[in-house]
Write a structure and sequence with these properties.
Mean pLDDT: 76
Order of helices and strands: HHHH
Distance between the termini: 51 Å
Largest sheet: none
Low-confidence stretches: none
């Protein structure tokens, strides 16, 4: 079991080291795009913005994982992740207030309820 844990730790360390430049670029791009989005009147409610952000994150992670597994450029996953981070930044800046797991889950439930009516 110790060998398995060491292999997982080594794999995680390699992944973190390999993705450090990409993470820095993603954070910078998302911050810049979020600042630009803050000047726009997008017209999304808080609930819809939360759900859209979560959806973009959920779509970006498998695309990034597949790209890294195949050792190719993660363009689509990176683009979706940047959009998710920017929309998340816009949401937090636009709708101030306590952000907890409960508020995020309530937002998701509210949007699903609105869509199924």
């Amino acid at each position: 079991m110790e060998g398995v844990w060491q292999a997982i730790t080594d794999l995680w360390d390699a992944l973190v080291a390999r993705t450090a430049p990409l993470r820095a670029v993603l954070a910078d791009e998302a911050s810049q795009l979020g600042d630009r989005l803050a000047t726009l009147d997008i017209g999304l409610s808080r609930d819809a913005a939360v759900v859209a952000t979560l959806l973009l994150f959920c779509l970006s992670l498998p695309a990034l994982a597949a790209a890294f597994a195949e050792r190719r450029a993660p363009r689509v996953g990176a683009m979706l992740l940047i959009l998710a981070m920017a929309l998340g930044w816009w949401t937090v800046e636009t709708y101030q207030g306590p952000w907890t797991v409960d508020t995020v889950m309530r937002s998701a439930i509210q949007v699903i309820a609105d869509l199924t009516r």
